[in-house]
Amino acid sequence: MPNIKSAKKRVLITEKKTAENKAIKSALKTQIKKFLAAVSAGDKALAEQLYPETVSAIDSAVTKGILHKNNASNKKAKLAKKLASIAA
Length: 88
Prior knowledge:
This protein has a single domain, classed as CATH 1.20.58.110. The chain is mainly alpha-helical. It is built from 3 helices and no strands. The chain starts with a helix and ends with a helix.
């Protein structure tokens, strides 16, 4: 446990930020799972509705520094490919 005041503050801030990041990442994973469930069920209308929301959640995670931009781009490409496969 830190003794210096600033170090104590950093510990508290780190815990708070870690909790925020974890919540954002969890919400992102949930959104992706919803989209993938719609695709696997073959529900084209629902999948097309969820796709922009999912991409928006991924972009939001990039903006907040949760995901790297290349990782996000990779995820979005995979989701788009799955959406296209259900449309075909």
